[in-house]
Amino acid sequence: MKLRNVLITTNDMNRAKQFYHDLFGLEVLLDNDGNIILTEGLVLQDATIWKKFINRDVVPENNATELYFEERDIEGFVEKLERLYPDIQYVNRLMTHSWGQQVVRFYDLDGNLIEVGTPM
C-alpha cells in the first residue's frame, strides 16, 4: 500500500490554487471539477463537495492536522509570505527549536495549518 495524496478543503478553489503556487510552487496536475491534484500530492477539494461526502461541516483552524514543508532559505520564505499575504494568520512566527530547526506556522486562506521548517 502507498499513500498517494493528502486532501484539504477550500471555499475558493482559484484563490487556493494561487496561494499554493505563489508560496510553494505547486502546479496543477489534474483539474477534475471541484477536485484539483497539485504536484507533491496535495489535493484541493471544494468544501461543499467534502461536506456532502461526509455529511458534516468543515471546521477551519481545527489544529488536528498540519501540512509540513521544508525550506532551506526560511527567512526568504517568510519575507515572501509577508509580502504576498500580509494578513496571513500565524500560529507562531519564525522561531528556532532547541534542536536548532527554524520553523514558522500559519493558516492558509481556508484555515488549514501549515508548518515550514528548515531541513533536519
How would you sum up this structure, described in words?
With 120 residues, the protein is an alpha/beta fold. The protein has helices at 13-24, 47-54, 74-84; strands spanning 6-10, 28-31, 35-38, 42-46, 67-70, 90-96, 102-107, 113-117. The strands form 2 sheets. It has a 4-stranded mixed β-sheet. It has a 4-stranded mixed β-sheet with strand order 5-8-7-6, with helices on one face. Strand 3 and strand 4 (42-46) form a beta hairpin. It starts with 5 loop residues before the first strand and ends with a strand. The mean pLDDT is 96.
Q: Count the E strands.
A: 8
What portion of residues is helical? 25-40%
**Structural class by helix and strand composition:** alpha/beta
Span between termini: 27 Å
Indicate the overall shape.
globular
Give me the strand/helix succession: EHEEEHEHEEE
Radius of gyration: 15 Å
- Chain-averaged pLDDT: 96
From the structure above, extract its key features.
2,3-Dihydroxybiphenyl 1,2-Dioxygenase, domain 1; 4-stranded mixed beta sheet; alpha/beta; 33% strand; globular
Topology of this structure?
Blueprint: E1 6-10, H1 13-24, E2 28-31, E3 35-38, E4 42-46, H2 47-54, E5 67-70, H3 74-84, E6 90-96, E7 102-107, E8 113-117
Parallel strand pairs: 1-4, 5-8
Antiparallel strand pairs: 2-3, 3-4, 6-7, 7-8
What would you say about this model in short?
This protein has helices at 13-24, 47-54, 74-84, and strands at 6-10, 28-31, 35-38, 42-46, 67-70, 90-96, 102-107, 113-117.
